[in-house]
Design brief:
Elements: H1 47-55, E1 63-64, E2 69-70, H2 72-81, E3 83-84, E4 89-92, E5 95-96, E6 101-102, E7 106-107, E8 112-113, E9 117-118, E10 123-124, E11 128-129, E12 134-135, E13 139-140, E14 145-146, E15 150-151, E16 155-157, E17 161-162, E18 167-168, E19 173-184, E20 189-190, E21 194-204, E22 209-210, E23 214-219, E24 222-224, E25 229-230, E26 234-238, E27 265-268, E28 277-280, E29 299-301, E30 307-308, E31 313-316, E32 319-322, E33 327-328, H3 330-337, H4 358-374, H5 378-394, H6 401-414, H7 420-442, E34 450-455, E35 464-469, H8 482-496, H9 507-535
Parallel strand pairs: 1-5, 2-6, 4-8, 5-9, 6-10, 7-11, 8-12, 9-13, 10-14, 11-15, 12-16, 13-17, 14-18, 16-19, 17-19, 18-20, 19-21, 20-22, 21-23, 21-24, 22-25, 23-26, 24-27, 26-28, 28-29
Antiparallel strand pairs: 3-4, 30-33, 31-32, 34-35
Helix pairs in contact: 4-5, 5-6, 7-8, 7-9, 8-9
């Protein structure tokens, strides 16, 4: 069924407008703003009036051509009138092209915008060429439509720049460009395969929609992709060197020279379906992951890094606390920093973390663990298994008291089967206690002697002997001697490997040996498991 044609707008623009050529589809006529001192927009001026207007322009002049339809030749004449003879390129002050329509190519190449450049809701029906254009102030392309290619190669934006809700219908690349302020692509739509090459301090890609394959290559940027929609594979990667232009020269990054490094930092992936997402050499220390869908399918390439636990030894309630080195999510930092008695070092300045707790973070750690395992990075997956267990141990809503108790014991004995030193420490302590108990109570005073007794029949014949053994007697006197140490060590070492040493023991010693043969092999197994989990690939 055919959709009804929307009724034409009868609301006039908020500025004095041209009104030329009304039609049933556009009953108000041309919405272009009037040229100062005239009764028509730039497009519909008479030739003499237009010539006079161009003659009155000087380089750096402010221009306002809202809702004006431009042909390629008309835009060319406008830029020629603003031509600066000292640079050989157009120079504009405040430039307002809100709702303007560019029917031919829009050639702003090498132009300089000294003031605000305002292209909100403009429509570029052909290629939009802004290569080497310099924008000194704020630049705004919000809700603009780019139906052809977008030539922003080597463009420099010295202020904040917005492409919010812009539609890139046919562009196959955006950049390389440099923005010294914040570059916003929030709500933008990319309908064709595209490559973005951007150097900026802050890149906003919230709620962007990518309708085809895309590659986003960045430098210096902290990037927010919250609630973005990826319909096809999308790669976000850090560029190690300055972008190379088509002429073989490196793009200048002078306004960003004060940044400590060119690393790319992810701020948020909340609300993203990560099934088609690839991250390469991205710093994820401050990234918010809670709410990310199919996080277990994300691909992490290169050196993607995460935050870590607070370094050094801290004090909590008068006792020393030291955290085992591991990868930690930003949301766990925020959660731990909010707990009563939290030690210094947990990051409280995690913007947007909200009230996320262990119940929400355990599935996130589990998904990232699987992503590392699928990438054959078992040692990397171990940290996220540890984080998952930690969240389950602290979760008082989804984990029962009994399960939390078991997890606490598992953590205390071996760090969830990942801390070999902890399990070996407990094993050494258990062996020491076993040896002390054996030397003190378990070994008899003397080794019991065997005696053989029998009766010889009067007329000779078969003699029957009975072999008996004295009961072990509890030790007295000095119990901690070198001989007793060797015996206790022999019994203990055999208990570790679940063997009997065939050593006579007192009743107490028998129970000590039984306990050690149960506990010590378990601790040894946990230590071996921890080593295996750390080194296997």
């Amino acid at each position: 069924m055919a959709q009804p044609t929307p009724a034409p707008s009868l609301t006039p623009p908020s500025w004095p407008y041209c009104g030329d050529g009304p039609t049933p589809e556009r009953p108000l006529g041309c919405p272009g703003i009037l040229v100062p001192g005239h009764s028509a927009c730039l497009t519909h001026l008479t030739d003499p009036a237009r010539d006079a207007y161009f003659a009155g322009l000087t380089p750096g002049a402010d221009i306002d051509h809202r809702a004006t339809p431009f042909t390629f030749s008309l835009l060319t004449r406008l830029l020629q009138a603003l031509h600066d003879p000292t640079t050989g390129h157009p120079r504009l002050g405040d430039a307002t092209f809100v709702l303007a329509t560019f029917e031919g190519g829009a050639g702003f190449e090498s132009a300089t915008f000294e003031g605000t450049a305002w292209f909100e809701s403009a429509t570029f029906n052909r290629d939009a060429i802004f290569g080497s254009a310099t924008f000194e102030g704020i630049s705004w392309f919000g809700s603009a439509t780019f139906k052809g290619d977008t030539g922003f190669e080597s463009a420099t934006f010295k202020g904040d720049t917005g492409f919010e809700s812009a539609a890139f219908e046919g562009a196959d690349r955006l950049g390389p460009l440099m923005c010294a302020g914040r570059l916003s692509l929030a709500g933008a739509v990319f309908r064709a395969p595209v490559t973005l090459s951007i150097a900026t301090r802050r890149l906003e890609c919230r709620r962007t929609r990518w309708s085809s394959t895309a590659e986003v290559r960045l430098r210096y940027a902290t990037v927010d992709f919250a609630h973005a929609v990826f319909e096809y594979p999308l790669t976000i990667a850090a560029e190690p060197e300055a972008f190379v232009l088509t002429d073989g020269q490196q793009m200048t990054e002078a306004p960003l020279a004060g940044s400590p490094d060119a690393a790319v930092r992810m701020a948020s992936l909340r609300g993203v379906d990560a099934a088609h997402l690839v991250l390469a050499d991205v710093d994820l220390a401050g990234c918010l992951f809670n709410g990310t869908v199919h996080l277990d399918q994300v691909r992490l390439e290169g050196t993607c890094s995460f935050d870590s636990v607070p370094p050094r030894t801290h004090r909590r309630g008068g006792r020393p606390v030291r955290f085992t080195e591991r990868c930690v999510l930003a949301e766990e930092h925020h959660w731990r920093a909010r707990q009563p008695g939290a030690v210094l070092g947990w990051n409280t300045a995690v913007v947007g973390a909200g009230q996320v707790g262990p119940a929400q973070l355990a599935p996130v750690y589990r998904a990232l663990r699987k992503a590392f395992e699928d990438g054959k990075n078992e040692p990397g997956a171990a940290d996220f298994y540890y984080g998952e267990m930690e969240m389950r141990r602290h979760d008082r809503t989804g984990t029962t008291r009994a399960e939390r108790g078991l997890l606490h014991g598992y953590w205390m004995l071996s760090g969830y089967g990942l801390r070999a030193s902890r399990a070996l420490g407990w094993l050494a302590a258990a062996m020491l206690v076993t040896m002390v108990l054996l030397m003190g109570f378990g070994l008899p005073r003397d080794d019991p002697k065997q005696e053989a007794t029998g009766t010889v029949p009067p007329g000779g014949g078969r003699v029957t002997f009975e072999i008996g053994k004295d009961n072990p007697r509890n030790p007295t006197g000095n119990r901690f001697t070198g001989e007793r140490f060797e015996k206790a060590l022999n019994v203990t070492l055999n208990s570790v490997v679940f063997r009997s040493a065939d050593q006579d023991l007192t009743t107490a010693g028998t129970y000590v040996e039984m306990a050690s043969r149960l506990a010590e092999p378990v601790l040894l197994g946990l230590a071996v498991l921890a080593v295996r989990n750390r080194v296997k690939r």
